[in-house]
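lol forgot to send this yesterday, sorry. struct tokens for the thing we talked abt
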């Protein structure tokens, strides 16, 4: 009998522009919950692709805020299935800043980062209905 659910290694990536309306702190900083919401979005797509169901987020076992996320950033958010059980799936998450506003050059200036900046990493578990 084959292992149920998505295969380990299934990867989903989304890109999102961080609007200035989400700046919550000085320096146009965005709170960490914003990125956790994006992790939920990629986890939902993982569940849809692997199980045909949106699933439910059960828990984070690790979250690391490694660099600031700012309004005007473009984030690349990835989820990778690291383990698939009967109903649970363990996912590895990473949010990278790939573009950043550059207000010193002008009010709408931005630049593509030569090396993406890892902003947040996490490990989490989602569950899907018994099938």
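and heres what i got for the seq, position by position
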């Amino acid at each position: 009998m084959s292992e149920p659910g998505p295969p380990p290694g299934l990867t989903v990536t989304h890109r999102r522009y961080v609007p200035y309306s989400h700046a919550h702190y000085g320096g146009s900083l965005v709170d960490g919950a914003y990125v956790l919401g994006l992790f939920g979005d990629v986890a939902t797509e993982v569940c849809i692709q692997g199980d045909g169901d949106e699933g439910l987020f059960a828990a984070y076992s690790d979250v690391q805020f490694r660099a600031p996320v700012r309004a005007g950033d473009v984030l690349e958010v990835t989820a990778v299935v690291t383990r698939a059980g009967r109903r649970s799936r363990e996912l590895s998450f990473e949010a990278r800043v790939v573009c950043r506003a550059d207000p010193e050059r002008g009010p709408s200036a931005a630049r593509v980062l030569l090396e993406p900046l890892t902003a947040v990493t996490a490990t989490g578990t989602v569950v899907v209905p018994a099938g």
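The radius of gyration is 16 Å. anyway ping me if u want another try
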